[in-house]
Q: What sequence folds into this?
């Protein structure tokens, strides 16, 4: 039986507020009049001109760096436990802080989340504090017994870059496809909302549709296509694995074709926004559905297993720490650098692009890695690559 | 006393769909590019109907600066 739609949480913002709905799960950013319409009267925030949110809506919380796999591209360089990983009690204290700031969603990860024995306890604690826990896992530990307990999550995504013999096409190492396949089936059988995370590289590009067909066969909810990040071990293989310019251009039309053909909902991550813009999509749709460039330090906060924080979990520098988050969110220079980047970009081609107002110059991680300058536009933006005659 | 219902005039500025289960970057649904305007209007109307329902209405003069209601 379907649950009746209801509001879960409401938070004031300078522009009005954010209302959270559970079924379907969504966050609606609304104006002051809407807030008044639903009974929320004046807030001191409404007299404020700040251009960032009062708190992140999504927090990426890596609770361990331990992982049984050693994937070639792992952005967290996961493997061994990180020195100073937070205890169960400290994780709960951190979640208390996020709850007090009215964070809506936490995406737990690692490392491999289920390397920690307290992963379910932490997810349940998030629920008890009004935060929806979600997670990305590799599926290594997902028994049918554990899957039953995973109903606490809003959604679980399992990483998978290829089907069958192609499972480790990006990852290297042992092929554990059948183990991961069973993990996904265990989760589906337990009634957990399951999605797949797929990192797009030049190696698996031509086999991506097989993953969409697989998701369809298992009746999965979503597939998220992720851009390969030059972060962690991903820096070492980046130039060998990154998609070609032609593949970057072909990705969005292929996604549209598969969205028509298959049932699972298709997603891309924020760093692929320039790749979408290349195809002149509706800006109104992009604005309304939050398909946008970097929102690090605004929508998003990253937390490392030792409690250090930053604006985006792919960024290499972290700052101490989550227990000072309310003050840091308002005052820390690191967050300001992320928020102000769109005002610092001075590349004429990028600024004159009609999509700059939604793309904000793309992902700064690529600018810093490829050009050594955080405030340059994404050098792999397909539009800029063609205008400038081959940045790559 | 005559009760006059105030006309609703608020607007939804933006919607972020789903739970963003990914633990490293922010995701967005590209499927929405295929949605018809009717589907989008239906979604907006559903949100408005739910938010404006009596069950969800908070008729209060809040003093909470962070503005949380759960």
A:
């Amino acid at each position: 039986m379907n649950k009746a739609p209801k509001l879960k949480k409401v938070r004031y913002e300078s522009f009005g507020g954010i209302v959270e709905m559970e079924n379907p799960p969504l966050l609606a950013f609304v104006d002051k009049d809407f807030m008044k319409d639903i009974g929320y009267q004046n807030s001191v925030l409404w007299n404020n001109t700040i251009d960032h949110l009062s708190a992140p809506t999504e927090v990426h919380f890596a609770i361990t760096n331990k992982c049984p796999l050693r994937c070639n591209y792992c952005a967290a360089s996961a493997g061994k436990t990180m020195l100073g990983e937070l205890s169960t009690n400290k994780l709960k204290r951190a979640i208390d802080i996020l709850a007090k700031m009215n964070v809506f969603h936490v995406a737990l990860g690692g490392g491999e989340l289920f390397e920690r024995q307290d992963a379910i306890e932490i997810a349940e604690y998030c629920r008890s504090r009004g935060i929806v826990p979600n997670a990305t896992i590799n599926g290594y530990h997902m028994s049918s017994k554990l899957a039953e307990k995973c109903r606490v999550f809003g959604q679980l995504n399992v990483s998978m870059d290829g089907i069958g013999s192609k499972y480790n096409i990006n990852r290297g190492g042992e092929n554990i496809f059948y183990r991961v396949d069973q993990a996904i089936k265990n989760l589906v059988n337990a009634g957990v909302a399951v999605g797949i995370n797929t990192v797009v590289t030049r190696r698996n590009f031509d086999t991506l549709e097989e993953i969409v067909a697989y998701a369809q066969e298992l009746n999965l909810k979503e597939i998220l296509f992720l851009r390969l990040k030059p972060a962690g071990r991903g820096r070492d293989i980046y130039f060998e694995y990154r998609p070609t310019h032609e593949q970057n251009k072909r990705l969005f039309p292929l996604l549209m074709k598969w969205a028509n053909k298959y049932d699972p909902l298709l997603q891309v991550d924020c760093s692929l926004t320039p790749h979408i813009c290349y195809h002149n999509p509706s800006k109104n749709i992009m604005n309304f559905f939050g398909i946008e460039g970097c929102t690090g330090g605004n929508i998003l906060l990253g937390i490392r297993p030792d409690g250090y924080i930053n604006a985006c979990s792919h960024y290499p520098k972290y700052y101490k720490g989550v227990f000072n988050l309310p003050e840091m969110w308002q005052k820390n220079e690191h967050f300001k650098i992320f928020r102000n980047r769109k005002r610092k970009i001075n590349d004429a081609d990028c600024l004159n692009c009609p999509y700059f107002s939604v793309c904000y110059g793309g992902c700064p991680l690529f600018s810093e890695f490829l050009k050594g300058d955080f405030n340059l536009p994404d050098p792999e933006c397909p539009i800029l690559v063609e205008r400038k005659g081959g940045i790559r | 006393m005559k009760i006059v219902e105030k006309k609703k005039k608020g607007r939804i500025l933006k919607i972020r769909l789903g739970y963003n289960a990914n633990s490293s970057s922010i995701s967005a649904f590209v499927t929405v590019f295929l949605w018809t305007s009717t589907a989008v209007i239906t979604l907006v109307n559903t949100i408005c109907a739910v938010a404006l329902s009596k069950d969800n209405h908070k008729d209060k003069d809040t003093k909470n600066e962070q503005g949380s209601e759960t």
